[in-house]
Write a structure and sequence with these properties.
The complex is a heterodimer of chains A (144) and B (422). Chain A has five helices and three strands, in the order αβββαααα. Chain A is of the alpha+beta class and 144 residues long. With 422 residues, chain B is an alpha/beta fold. In chain B, the strands form five sheets. A seven-stranded mixed sheet of chain B has the order 4-10-9-8-7-5-6, with helices on both faces. In chain B, strands 13-14-17-16 form a four-stranded antiparallel sheet, with helices on one face. Chain B has a two-stranded antiparallel ribbon with strand order 1-2. In chain B, β11 and β12 form a beta hairpin. The chains are: A alpha+beta (144), B alpha/beta (422).
Chain lengths: 144, 422
């Protein structure tokens, strides 16, 4: 079934058992992002501990948006902002590739499961919701 | 022109008038289009009317001393007669806009342009009344008008059955109320609102009633005189017509007093370097070269619907809605938002399925050739009131039939299996 390329096992697993979900009591920065097309939303807490990223989040949305936020937070947590930047760029580039890129597994790890999303234009914003929230938070934290 | 089979509401025969149903979806799936609440598909007669205007009659209307300009003007103005007949209004009460959204904004901006002394003038202490079930197009323009004028925005609430709570009608429509703007049929719940008491109370306090008829005019017989409202807006593209054309109907004497919103060519009577006066209604509200081909296409669309019969279309959609509600009744994980009965409702059903987000449901149904709408349907306050972030919505039209309904019921069950078993 063609749909299986979109709903890969990794995605449905993260949707059912999301990681880093549940907001931390304190954070250096908190951002709230919504997808006005569908009403999906995410709140993301970002802190730096000894320069290492600490993410927690909460949100409501479809399997793609929630699983992507989960994969993003587990992939980027414990890395530095300098290390996270190229991963973020690589994911955004994969999403915007209209199915022409396969993505680098070394860089993207579990996030590679979202490669099928790029063939469904209406879902790209879903997959990017958590990542754009992180990008926003990381810009804010660097401005401090 | 409508084909010979259009006097009967056999969805599969009606589909033959609509070329889009010849294509397949996601490989080799038949197109099951259940998103007419967002936009309707177009019959050949509409596509040809629009194209033929460009092929044969294209010229700027109301200008030019040549044959094409005469023919273009005649085609454009003929459509105005068709719309007037369709709604039961006077031909000079029909204003063409680019969309229903523009029709409603035209009203809100024109009210805002009214000087002190004009009956539409709004100020602090005045009230504008809407409802919780409004589409953003009939909510946000009034929010903004209230901000610009200092008027207060108030609204009717929704009860647990998906209907307006009119128990407090006199405290909502107060004596200070100047405008009551209401949807005729909810684009999310399918609820058709009863207007008699609202219109009576509004007129008692000297307010005008603005009806957003986007979801009713294409689907049932709507007569502005019978409804007693003062203004009505609907869009062409939801009425098997082209995009880029909407209609605003208003009572003649009110349109005469209402100041214009868009200024420029066509809408003037006389212009000097320092001052201008306005053309008579409806031209006063139609600045610039209008969307001529789309207006002509809308005329063809309304003729098509009239040939089929609006009462038949409504009955057909209610039969389909009944079948869907019964089918969903048997699925304990499906929650339906809006009226469960068939009285005072149209062919729209919004629902949620346990543990499956609407966006995922919509994606799965798409893989089976079924087009539905998911999200907040441009009625975010209503969706919030329902206690969800989004719903899945099926909306019916004349080209749907029972096989479409059965495909949706089966598609939902298949989605439950797909997401549940993995």
């Amino acid at each position: 079934m063609q749909l299986d390329s979109l709903y890969q096992e990794v995605i449905l697993d993260h949707y059912k058992r999301p990681e880093h979900k549940g907001l931390s009591e304190k954070s250096d920065v908190q951002v709230h992002h919504v997808n006005p097309n569908c009403g999906d939303e995410i709140t993301l807490n970002l802190s730096l501990r000894d320069h290492l990223i600490d993410i927690s989040w909460d949100g409501v949305g479809c399997s793609i948006s929630m699983a992507s936020a989960s994969v993003m937070s587990s992939l980027l947590s414990g890395k530095t902002l300098e290390e996270a930047g190229p991963i973020l760029d690589s994911f955004v580039s994969l999403m915007q590739s209209k199915g022409t890129q396969t993505g680098d597994e070394e860089v993207l790890e579990d996030a590679l499961a979202f490669s099928g999303v790029s063939k469904y234009p209406a879902r790209i914003k879903c997959a990017l919701l958590g990542w754009m929230a992180f990008k926003d938070a990381s810009v804010q934290i660097q401005g401090r | 022109m409508a084909s010979q089979i259009t006097m009967t509401l056999n969805g599969s025969l009606i589909r033959k008038d609509f070329p889009i149903f010849e294509r397949v979806i996601r490989g080799d799936m038949r197109l099951i289009y259940l998103d007419s609440g967002a936009t309707s598909q177009k019959p050949n007669s509409v596509i040809e009317a629009e194209a033929n205007f460009y092929r044969r009659n294209n010229a700027a209307v109301h200008r030019g001393a040549h044959q094409l300009a005469e023919e273009a003007t005649d085609a454009y103005e003929s459509a105005r007669f068709i719309v007037a007949d369709f709604l039961g209004g006077d031909v000079d009460e029909i204003i063409f806009t680019k969309s229903a959204t523009e029709s409603l904004n035209l009203l809100a901006y024109s009210f805002g342009n009214a000087d002190s002394g004009n009956r539409f003038h709004l100020k602090a202490g005045d009230r504008i009344v809407v409802s919780e079930m409004e589409h953003h197009a009939n909510l946000v323009p009034w929010q903004e008008l209230a901000k610009r004028t200092g008027a207060e925005l108030a609204w009717f609430s929704l009860n647990e059955f998906g209907r307006l709570d009119l128990s407090n009608i006199e405290s909502v429509i107060t004596v200070d109320t100047k405008v009551v703007a209401l949807t005729h049929q909810s684009n999310v719940l399918g609820t058709i609102n009863p207007l008699e008491a609202i219109v009576a109370r509004a007129h008692d306090v000297g307010a005008v009633v603005v009806l957003d008829a986007c979801q009713s005019v294409p689907h049932m017989k709507v007569d502005v005189e019978k409804l007693g409202v003062d203004f009505l807006a609907f869009s062409g593209h939801k009425s098997v017509g082209p995009t880029g054309v909407g209609v605003l109907w208003g009572r003649g004497e009110l349109l005469d007093e209402l100041p214009p919103f868009l200024f420029g060519g066509s809408m003037i009577e006389s212009v000097t370097m320092a001052h201008s006066t306005w053309a008579a209604v409806p031209r006063k509200f139609e600045a610039g070269v209008p969307n001529m081909a789309q207006v002509v296409g809308l005329g063809a669309a309304l003729n098509y619907l009239t040939t089929i019969g609006l009462d038949k279309i409504h009955d057909h959609e209610i039969a389909l809605t009944s079948r869907l509600l019964e089918g969903f009744e048997e699925n304990k994980d499906v929650q339906i938002f809006g009226p469960r009965g068939l009285d005072m409702r149209g062919g729209i059903v919004s629902f949620a399925v346990k543990d499956i987000h609407p966006h995922d449901m919509g994606q799965f149904l798409d893989s089976q050739g079924i087009a539905v709408r998911t999200g907040h349907h441009c009625a975010w306050p209503l969706t919030r009131k329902l206690g969800v972030n989004a719903t899945t919505r099926a909306s019916f039209y004349l080209y749907n039939d029972e096989t479409d309904v059965d495909a949706l019921i089966a598609g939902v069950a298949n989605a439950q299996e797909y997401f549940g078993s993995r």
